[in-house]
Design goal:
The protein is α/β, with parallel strands linked by helices. It has a single domain, classed as 3-Layer(aba) Sandwich (Rossmann fold). It contains eight helices and five strands. A five-stranded mixed β-sheet has the order 3-1-2-4-5. The radius of gyration is 17 Å and the shape is globular. It starts with a strand and ends in a 9-residue tail after the last helix.
Amino acid sequence: MWLQKYSIQASTWENGSIYAPYDEALTLKNKSLEVEPYLNGHSIYLIGLTGSGKTTVGKILSHVLGYSFYDRLRYCRGSLQRNNLLFLLVEKKGIIVWLDVPLETLARRIAAVGTHSRPLLHYEHGDPYTKALKRLSYLLEQRGKNYAKANARVSLEEIAGKLGCRDASDLTPIEIAIEELEQIEEYLKEEGGMATAGF
């Protein structure tokens, strides 16, 4: 998934099913206003395992930042997570953010909706949770080194701890988007802004 700056502000959430309490929405908007000057219009690339929330959080961020949202599955045949050359190219053009979700949380999410919409998980045998957990473990083993190269890491386990949630699955997409903006801001400040980061 990637987000790219565009000149016209979106007027509605692209995913109309997202509801945010006023205080969450206000916090998100304020954080986006803090981060926006550092972004300087550069793209944001979201990576993570299937079911990690790239599409949901990406649509929220695209709305609040005034970016266009592109789904990698629709626009790219190569896989950023597996292709080192593509990863290096993307790294030069934008900010790579890893949505790091505990495998058990992902397996529960996917088992709840079924694996039929997740081609990478469709071939395992067994109950939906075990099937998803087994395949996700394999995928993380294959892709983990590239995920670790991301400019920013958004750990749902750490967010849950910080907010006092008992489990990462209790987090709202808005809470995750806020943390993503905080991690992007921290990365850009550490790098001294986009110019220093090679953009």
